Amino acid sequence: MAKAAKESAERIKLLLQITENLNHNKDLDSLLDNILYEARKFTNADAGTIFLVEGNKLKFSYFQNDTLAKREDSINKFIYTVFEIPIDEKSIAGYVALSGKPLIIDDVYKINDKVPYSFNSYFDQIFNYKTVSTLTVPLITSRQNVVGVMQIINSMDKKGNIKPFNEEDQMFVSFFANNASVAIERAKMTREIVLRMIKMAELRDPKETGNHVNRVASYSIEIYDRWAKKKGIPLKEIKKFKDNLRIAAMLHDVGKVAISDTILKKKGKLTEKEREIIKLHTVYGARLFENSLSDMDILSREVALNHHEKWDGTGYMGHIDNIFSDNLKPGKGKKGEEIPLSARIVALSDVYDALISDRVYKEKWEERSVLEYISEQKGKHFDPEIVDSFFEIYDVIKAIRKKYSDEGE
Fold it and tell me: N vs C: which end of the chain shows fewer Cβ within 10 Å?
């Protein structure tokens, strides 16, 4: 009895520490990743999904699955699946969102016919996976608003056998979920503030759309994820860097708010002088993060200033002693690893998306031509290792393009 009480106390202590750590996440997707990871680790669960409320529906927002990760080299492509379900009693997640109460099911294929909800085996079929036990909890804020639903799947015993979730699992995960809900609301506000900044840039430059920056940011974190794992970088460090990189990548061109409309919206060919003025958006963007107080600010400054540098040293703005000088002149281009890793990644993401997307000033390139160009620019414009990582996860890249498509805008 004393041993069980001690174990519970240790779990509570750990849970409080994990909850506190969530407050350090700034990006919404990174937060969802950490919430799901910690909840699964806490219950030794094989998989899990988070749905967020959008209107009267639940939107598939994050996904993890250890079994599929062992079979599928690029499992992250499933994160970008577009899928919604109504908030009603017919589905398990919808029922939990509607009722606001957690639900344990020992075997989803043996649900009693008398309950209103049922299990949709669609994902099991397309992924060749077997869901058995589930713990589904609502994500409820302190104001009693349901912002989403988290479903933890297939709790495992020490031998790797699937077992049911228990009441203690439900108690701990529900407590964790309630605290996580506050962090989700805060992260959604941060995302909205960033997107408002992007909309300001979009008013000046039609190329800077919300979908464009979401694509560039998603490409960037997935390229980094592959690059970092090949380098053997610890998972905790990878998660922290991705959290900051997504926001920094979204803000890569925010400095264009300082460029004249007559240049940004000019339909004809730019003069040499106008091209030089356009280049200054990198400096103007970096200046926005003058008082860098956090890792996110530092990374945003790096990306804004350096994302047009090239691996071979032929990019811009190059080495500048003082970016706040009134007499700015491009210096010698930064070369190789003189360019921050964050900017080397965003450079590839931004160029890829610009080439493969329609723009007011050009038609999109054929996909084959884009990929050939990126291969050709390996070691010239782009870091060779970043190019390799890009091609290794290209199915993920395509999934991102599909999720954040410009169609219908």
Answer: N
